[in-house]
Amino acid sequence: MVKAIIIKETGGPEVMSYETVDLGDPGPGEVRVKHAAVGLNYIDVYHRSGLYPVQPPLVLGLEGAGTVEALGEGVTQFKEGDRVAYANPPLGAYSQARNMPWHRLVKLPDSIDFQTGAAMMLQGMTVEYLIRRTFRVETGQTVLFHAAAGGVGLIACQWLKKLGATVIGTAGSPEKMALAKAHGADHMINYREENFVERVKELTGGKGVPVVYDGVGKDTWEGSLDCLSPRGLLVNFGNASGGISQFNPGTLAAKGSLYLTRPTLMTYTASREDLVESATALFDVVTSGAVKIEVNQTYPLAEAVQAHRDLEGRKTTGSTVFLP
Q1: Per-residue DSSP letters for 105-163?
Q2: Where are the domains of the chain?
Q3: Rounded to two decimals, what is the model's pTM?
Q4: Fold that domain 139-262 belongs to in CATH
Q5: How confident is the model at residue 317, as a pLDDT?
Q6: 44, 102, 208, 276: least surrounded by Cβ within 10 Å?
Q7: Where is each Enoyl reductase (ER) domain found (predicted)?
């Protein structure tokens, strides 16, 4: 028996409850992981609210780090005591322990502690595919990254600087702007006080940028398109302000033969090979010191309701982890 956060219906943070659940032995091809830390991510909100369809009752969460406790039949790739981390389906990370398919786990380097591991996998591999595969950022390019002081944003600012890019970021307060600049953003725009489209055009001499990374969604959608140079790419990878309900492809033509993609980490790490390659690239930039993971909030797992309220209220910065 273990403690876990359960939802029995979708809705607001109040639908989550901290309960005891039965955890059986790992099945064939599975590994039981005892969590030392569990990651909090905005996709958890999408699952809890029903924006991304799920079938309750279920345990939330896609990211965790801990120790292998038991092996199911046929698993030879791991051994008991191995340090592991993951950021993949199936859901179930909001728990003290869980069973996980072995091929969705990666070994966590000894130099990376469990809290960092749980804080970095989903957000860090998201940054990896965004800037290395969705649009391969090259030295000298200028990019716009919304919500630059969030967990994904702070990792992106650092990694983009390592690649030699100029980073324009947006945030909603002077404190968040300063935080993003301290992590590598060259220019910050307070979207609550400034017109970010006008500022981007000003900073780029009217040219715009070749790529916009937008995890905000509804509130920034139109403006993001207007920040792009002709044939630029809008990477809409999240919906923190709500989903985009209507889209006319003709808009892309009118604004300069633009491109649009809606990628997901799950697609970019669907194969074992892609998962390991993405995680390895992330581990390399973290262990080298080029990217530092900021765990700026920790909550007991039992306080998941408050954690979700703080996340949705944009009261958090950097990464957040639960301590089971």
Answers
A1: -EEPPTTS-HHHHHHHHHHHHHHHHIIIIIS---TT-EEEESSTTBHHHHHHHHHHHHT
A2: 2-121+268-323, 139-262
A3: 0.93
A4: Rossmann fold (3.40.50)
A5: 85
A6: 276
A7: 11-322
